[in-house]
Amino acid sequence: MTTRPLDKTMPLRKPVLSHTAKYWIGFAVVMALLIVAPLVLPVFWAKFLTEILIWGLLAMSSDILIGYTGMVSFGHSAFFGLGMYGAAAALLLVTPGNVWLAILFGLAGAAGAALFVAYFSTRLRDIYFAITTLIFSQIFYVIIFTWTKLTGGENGLLFTRPHLTFAWLYDARFTFTTLHWFVLAIVAGSYLILRRITQSPFGMVLQSIRENEARTRAIGFPVQRYKIVAVMLSGIFAGLAGVLYAVQNEFAAPNFVYFITSGDTVIFNVMGGIGTLVGPIVGAGFFQLLRELMSRLFGDQFPYLIPLGFIFIAMIIFLPQGLLGFARRWLNR
Amino acid sequence: MDAVAQFLKDIPFDLILIQTVNGIVTGMILALVASGLTLIFGIMDVVNFAHGELFMLGAYVGVIVVATTGNFWLALVVSALTIAVLGAALQIVTLRPLIGRDPLNTILATFGISLILQNFALWEFGPVARRMPSPLTGHFILFYLDYPWYRLVVAALSAAIIGGFWLFLKYGKYGIWIRATTQDRVMAQAMGIPVPWVLTGVFALGAGMAAASGVLFAPLVGVDHTMGLDWVLKAFIVVVVGGMGSLGGSVVAAIFISLLEAYAAIWVNPSQAVIVSFVVLILTLLFRPTGLFATPK
After folding, report:
1. How far apart, in whole angstroms, are the C-alpha atoms of residue A305 and residue A260?
2. B253 found inside a domain
């Protein structure tokens, strides 16, 4: 038997499409589906999808901390809530309400809260960080809940949805379709910005903190400052989600500043797969779908969080990477 | 001089004394909750998010036993044992597979447990708070108040449980096992200590203490499914301020914070008095992030 020498002239097989091309094609397909969705889906499911996108944005903002910096935040409800109340302030104080002003106010509110939380909680690591973020979010909850004159206390604040405006060019009421597109545009934009940030030198430092904090400090990076910026960044995007939720539902309520919202955020992340940015959105969709399914099958009173809790624990033990964990490297390349 | 005299006259000494007693009573219960939490953390490196839910379920078991047998002290024992067994089961099923993984996984798992337990309580017992009769009905006169003896008994009992627990850790055979496991897990294993079972036992012990404090606390305000979260938050503040894993630190911090909240409640309404403990937490984080009484490892 003779072995033939390798044919030197045979070219190495190149992939038909580069990774970048595949990634953007995938992105375009998903975007196209999401754009068409409200036109073909029944109204209920279209609104449901909009809501999933908003929760997904909240979870995605938290992924910057959980997945990329290795800090679990149990206090994202504070940023989300401050975003809601900021939007409410803008829409109640300025007439006629302007959606861009609402976003500006909401982001300012969330950024303020995030600065406060970041300054104190980044002094601590791991579990201590998780606990302090939780306690800080409760501070905001207590303040909002008891300062009835300013925040409406338990009842929250009601307002009407502003028009969708683009400078002087366009001015119309939101329909559920345009609202969906508006939310989709913001969520997709946020995703691209966050993805760019995680691939930037700054994002690399964050991931290096996740992998080995002591070594990152030893190389000479001011770790605490990086963490503060990471928490603020995360808080600002969480606030953006809060503004969108307020605009969609036309209220701001203290329930959303409560710990439950933070807990849900963490669940979305773990279910969808941390460190992927899109994973948390998928996780939010998975969670909300299961919930909707269960309340349809077993009635509204069914305690859906019991089976979801079991699924959650099982996923931590058996599937710690989450639903999209298998695609983590591919998505981050 | 007049201003000073007026100021001294304005201090409501009777209220302050009453609130001191109240603060110590809640402080002792809080210390009992927090010492279970700090025990589980110090030995297992597990932040038990479900601790408040174990406290709440303990109170519910107590309510049920009192309703069927009418004996409060029996309820205390039965509840502590039931919840300890539940705790052991939870530890074996959910936390044991996570040994050796990032400690953050355990906080997530216990968070999942707390979700299940809280919603189970809501589903099973409904949203209406249950009342529990106090086992002692005697009163004594404190200024213009009929102060129930029961509250003082609660404080004393909590102190006794914590003290007994401390003696157990210090001198008991299994207490020494527990301390050995804390110091060096691998070495303890090599000396023939069944480390996984020590961890299960510690979790069960902490759960039992949470349940006992739940039963003791139940006659003071009643039992509902949300009480767990309030208490676990307070207990978290206590363990961070006192220094994670330090038993003495948690007791001192629990009493300190409860006293401050009690005094604050003289001037503002109780739901805002909570802010005082947040302020204590922030100051602690600013000036001594490892906690007031932490022993450096």
Report:
1. 11
2. no
